[in-house]
Amino acid sequence: MRPKNLEKEEAIRTIALQIISEEGLENLSMQKLAKAANVSPRTIYIKYENKEDFLIKLFIDEVLGAYEKAILEKFTPDMEFAAGVKKLWTNAFRYFKNNRHAFALMQYGKSSPLLNKAYQERDIKEGDYFAPVHRFFELNAKAGVIRKLPQEAYRALLFAPMFELVNEYFDFLERPKQIITDKLFADCCDAVIKGMLK
Amino acid sequence: MRPKNLEKEEAIRTIALQIISEEGLENLSMQKLAKAANVSPRTIYIKYENKEDFLIKLFIDEVLGAYEKAILEKFTPDMEFAAGVKKLWTNAFRYFKNNRHAFALMQYGKSSPLLNKAYQERDIKEGDYFAPVHRFFELNAKAGVIRKLPQEAYRALLFAPMFELVNEYFDFLERPKQIITDKLFADCCDAVIKGMLK
DNA sequence: CAAAAGTAAGTAAATGTTTGTTTACTTATA
DNA sequence: TATAAGTAAACAAACATTTACTTACTTTTG
């Protein structure tokens, strides 16, 4: 049996993210992707059932999974609140800086019904998705360090500004001067922390 | 000369937003839209040059413009900081609750390169886009009420969590119990305000 | 221990469908 | 009656996916 060429599999995923990032999800076609990845359309369909299946797996495995892993590096739920939040923010900033294309598909995850559905299904099925972060909030709320709010509110207050800053960071890459520096990022993180404290 | 039917023009825009919201931007085609709006494809091309032109105008006029108008209602740059932020948040929440389809396209504005480009061009051309909010931050920073940060950081800290909460609000509409209540929304607004104060 | 057989990986080209847009024509009103 | 608004049907190009075939490797066999 002919063994599969792992380089081709990776090229398909990598180039898909590139096209989505540069031209938009609505401009990604299977034929265009195959051509750009130097592969026959059929090759994509060996691994993925159809386009929908491909996009969902790309989103969940390549983007969500890698993001989750990166953000939780050296983070534990029992960290002191400010230190924990700073760790999550710096982890995320570092990861996205090095994975711009993944960030683009991540953003689509918030608007596209297809990916949104995938996200919610995963969230329900895998109860331990971001579980350490859940637990981190829970512990700090119990200890009276932060206000008691639903997890959804914690996520909105803590992560939404971070995403927006990363977005701005990429926008400014195409302009003469970058304003989203590590210093500014840290200042914003402080503001978010302060807002959540009791 | 036969006068144009304004109802048809509106149907085109309304139904486009509906399709984008329910099936995603990538599933909106001109022929599908025409059929759904009970109109010949040609009719769309009377007013709009092509699909790109249509989407950009839909995004800017129907979504951004209406959002801007709604959010600035009874808001002035000289308002006291907490009161001003609360006004912006409640205006936005009310507007989106009544315009779910517009919110969907708004979210795409952050991911789609096409709409993103349109957004940035508008932002540059019309210097007074959200000018009252700009000025509001400027005044409060000068007065020493809030930290001094770039406008981009203010926007990230102030608006990003609000958008995320609206997003959650719509997600929870399809579940047994709504958790994004006016009360929770107000609590989160307080947290954001507190974080920005000096 | 080489050569043949078996097999999944891979390709190029074609499938029928849907796409954005246009053509040739009709309709409604100033 | 002049004219822009509107329609139905058509256009080539691009779409997702499949068909029919070849390739490259593993395993079995003589």
Spell out the key features of this protein.
198 residues; DNA-binding; mainly alpha; homodimer; Tetracycline Repressor, domain 2; 73% helix
Structure, explained:
Chain A has 198 residues and is an all-alpha fold. Chain A folds into 2 domains: 1-47, Orthogonal Bundle (Arc Repressor Mutant, subunit A), CATH 1.10.10.60; 59-196, Tetracycline Repressor, domain 2, CATH 1.10.357. Chain A contains 10 helices and no strands. In chain A, helix 1 (6-23) packs across helix 6, helix 4 (51-71) crosses helix 6 (100-111) and helix 9 (151-173) packs antiparallel against helix 10. Chain A is globular. The relative contact order of chain A is 0.10. The A-B interface holds A 22-26, 104, 107-108, 110-114, 120, 147, 149-150, 152-153, 155-157, 159-161, 163-165, 167-168, 171, 179-180, 184, 187-188, 191-196 and B 22-26, 104, 107-108, 110-114, 120, 147, 149-150, 152-153, 155-157, 159-161, 163-165, 167-168, 171, 179-180, 184, 187-188, 191-196. The structure holds a DNA duplex (30 and 30 nucleotides).
Low-confidence stretches of chain A: none
Main sheet makeup of chain A: none
Task: Count every helix of chain A, treating DSSP H or I runs of 4 or more residues as helices.
Answer: 10
The overall number of domains of chain A is 2
Average pLDDT score of chain A: 95
Shape of chain A: globular
Protein structure class of chain A: mainly alpha
The CATH homologous superfamily of the largest domain in chain A corresponds to: Tetracycline Repressor, domain 2
* Helical residues, percent of chain A: over 70%
CATH class of the largest domain in chain A, anyone?
A: Mainly Alpha
Determine Rg of chain A (CA atoms, Å).
19 Å
| Most extensive protein-chain contact, per-chain counts | A-B, 42 and 42 residues
Q: Kindly identify the CATH topology of the largest domain in chain A.
A: Tetracycline Repressor, domain 2
Number of strands of chain A: 0
Q: Tell me which oligomeric state these chains represent.
A: homodimer
Intertermini distance of chain A: 63 Å
Strand content of chain A: under 5%
Q: Which series of helices and strands of chain A comes N to C?
A: HHHHHHHHHH
Would you identify the CATH architecture of the largest domain in chain A? Orthogonal Bundle
